[in-house]
Amino acid sequence: MIRIAILEKEQWVKDILYECVRLFAETECSFVCYTKISQLIKGDANYRFDMIILHGMFDTPRVLSALMPKGGGRIVLFSKESSEFGSERKGIFEMDRRHIRMEMKRIAPQLITYFRNRQVYHLRSRRLSIPLIINDIYYIEKQDKNVIYHTARGLFHERKGLKELEELLNAHNFWRIHSRYLINSSHISAYQKDALILHGEIRLPIARARRAQIQAWIQHSQESVMRSI
After folding, report:
1. Long-range CB pairs of 168-176, under 8 A, 24+ apart, other chains included
2. Which of 23, 104, 158, 174 has its CA 20 to 30 A from that of 116?
3. Among the listed ranges 67-76, 99-108, 116-125, which one has the minimum average pLDDT value?
4. Gyration radius of the chain's alpha carbons
5. Higher pLDDT, 106 or 91
6. In the chain, what is the greatest distance between 2 CA atoms, to the nearest angstrom?
7. Res 71: pLDDT
8. Higher pLDDT, 2 or 180
9. Cα–Cα distance for residue pair 90/72, rounded to 1 Å
10. In the prediction, which pLDDT does 224 show?
11. d(Cα 184, Cα 176) in Å, to the nearest integer?
């Protein structure tokens, strides 16, 4: 279930709704439309929206601080005119309201990837099944016959092989960068020749044998972003 809130002028709401339904045709969605920002913020306390679509006038630090969780975890999409676009920000997108269909098509790959990564992985530990949102996993570390999940919620352990997880999470853009590490590429904040930086502070080494492959992945990811702009 994807929960979507919309706060926009009536003349554009219909087009936005239609394109969201078309984009997420294979996913169950719910929509709530608002006319005031105060109503949306109160509604968010009950619904915890996954994506919020707003008129560009609300792109202010005060509104973003109220709507964006500190650790991320949602998409905020501002409807503007292209001349009003700012610099790229994580989890925040901008679309030209004059060309809503084209704009939704432009950012669709990133939105689909984001919501696919909101799916849940169930790890098993001590006969318990623990649900983890896939995109909340920063990286997975091999330790003897176990793996350690480094996540937004803390550390979790499971008796499983890293190769099995690599195959399972490949569709969610997890990269094997070392015999010990499988990383969630959506959390990369910097790239070095011999290491990747996650969240600006977690430095993980890249195995020498994998450097060329990782560099190719990084280049392909950058080109995909440029094509979507």
Report:
1. 168/121, 169/121, 169/134, 171/116, 172/116, 172/117, 172/119, 172/134, 172/135, 173/113, 173/117, 174/140, 175/214, 175/217, 176/210
2. 158
3. 67-76
4. 19
5. 106
6. 59
7. 57
8. 180
9. 8
10. 52
11. 9
Residue 26's identity, in one-letter code, is: E
Pick from 36, 32, 35: nearest CA to 20: 32
Q: What CA dihedral angle connects 7, 4, 223 and 178, to 10 degrees?
A: 140
CA distance 5 to 14: 13
Tens digit of each residue's pLDDT (9 = 90 or more) over 104-161: 999 998 888 878 777 788 898 877 899 998 888 999 999 988 999 999 889 999 999 9
Instruction: Specify the amino acid at residue 59.
Output: D
Average pLDDT over every residue of 41-50: 87
Taking alpha carbons only, the member of 88, 34, 23, 90 closest to residue 58 is: 34
Q: Are 117 and 185 contacting, i.e. CB atoms less than 8 angstroms apart?
A: no
